[in-house]
């Protein structure tokens, strides 16, 4: 944390809700059998909600970390998540 986040930002970030992903409440299949009983649309919907739950936290990383390696990586992850979001939305149409 000390390496990547400047001192003045470190404590302010701990209170920010944008830094967290709350995916525990997303209704997900609990195992292989449960997943196989879900329709394709239900699985796509679950996947979309899960991906969307990570978009803001990953984008937040780009703003918080000053290290170029972390910044570039979080930007690439964000772009991949956006691509997945768009792909799933296309499949759901």
Automatic annotation (TrEMBL):
InterPro entries: 4_helix_cytokine-like_core, Somatotropin/Prolactin, Somatotropin_CS. It is found in: Secreted. One of its GO terms (cellular component) is extracellular space. Keywords: Hormone, Secreted. One of its GO terms (molecular function) is hormone activity. GO terms for biological process: animal organ development; growth hormone receptor signaling pathway; positive regulation of growth; positive regulation of receptor signaling pathway via JAK-STAT; response to nutrient levels. The keyword Secreted applies. Belongs to the somatotropin/prolactin family. This is SOMA protein.
């Amino acid at each position: 944390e000390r390496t990547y986040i400047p001192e003045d930002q470190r404590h302010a970030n701990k209170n920010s809700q944008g830094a967290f992903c709350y995916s525990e409440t997303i209704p997900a299949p609990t195992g292989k059998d449960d997943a196989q009983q879900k329709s394709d649309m239900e699985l796509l919907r679950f996947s979309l909600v899960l991906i969307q739950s990570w978009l803001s936290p990953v984008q937040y990383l780009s703003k918080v970390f000053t290290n170029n390696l972390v910044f570039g990586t979080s930007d690439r992850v964000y772009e991949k998540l956006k691509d997945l979001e768009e792909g799933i939305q296309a499949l759901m149409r």
